[in-house]
Amino acid sequence: MLSKAVIATLILAVVVVAGCAPVTYFAKKNEAEAEAAFPPEGEILAIGEQSVHAVVLGEGPDLVLIHGASGNTRDFTFEFAQRMAGKYRVIVLDRPGFGWSSPLPDDQGTIFDQAGLLQAAAAKLGADKPIVLGHSYGGAVALAWATRMPDALSALVPVSAAAQVWPGESSLFYRVTASTLGGATVVPAITAFAPEERVQTAIASIFEPQSAPAGYDDYVGAGLSLRRQTLRINAQERVELKPQIAEMVPQYGSVAVPTEIVHGDADGTVWLSVHAEPLAREIPGAALTVLPGIGHMPHHADPEAVEAAIDRAAARAGLI
What we know:
- The chain is of the alpha/beta class and 320 residues long.
- The chain has helices at 4-19, 23-37, 74-77, 80-84, 111-124, 137-148, 172-178, 180-184, 186-193, 196-207, 216-219, 222-225, 228-248, 272-282, 298-301, 303-316, and strands at residues 43-47, 50-57, 62-66, 89-93, 131-135, 155-159, 260-264, 287-291.
- The strands form 2 sheets. Strands 1-2-4-3-5-6 form a 6-stranded mixed beta sheet, sandwiched between helices. The protein has a two-stranded parallel ribbon with strand order 7-8.
């Protein structure tokens, strides 16, 4: 069910857009301020006609980190990428349309298309067979990488990954903001007028039952995710993900690289029983680490456990 607060926000957004001419001005202003406050952390790679933002840290076996929905490289560079850079060459990538990576064409934004683009970016950096870690939606992209390009990675680490077809349908909020009408009305209003408290509430909900680490809210660059184009892409991805996963599930049995799955049993966003447990049965030799009491953000709430999973994957692949 959509909360009363979200319904009220949607109604207000439509009213504001319909009756307030300056909405475009404020949307552009907020986007410009976000981009000035949170510039690229790394380099922009040219991959054909696309651009991919990559942050590279450390030395050692290659480790690619793929962020989840509404995210960007800053979710990993807040702490976790630096933690792993002591023994790995860490490559953090913005998914297309997020952070500082350009969006894919409208008909080429599937998890399979994203995996192909990010694999090409990693290869351009010399990472031909990296360990690939994907969090949440990024976990689905990592699984697409493993199923479609099995010779282009050494090991797989899905963390809180969306991996199975789940019951129900996408929320009304995403269905509205993914639509043509919602994209033209609700989305600009959110970009222009989203209150800071709403952003804080959204971040807090992602971390439940834990709290976001001190300083995360200010560092992660939520304003980048509130840009109009990014909001539309995020909504479209949410609405279109289920059939893409349905297409991918029958291919899990062909994944031959060492796979270490990490999932919290208190994850209320991507459920352990629906996603990780079936995935562990479907990928041959996959190991599942269940984190008691941990929610949707294990790389923040229990980074030691995620690090240990990466180390096990690397050892199984003969990289360390």
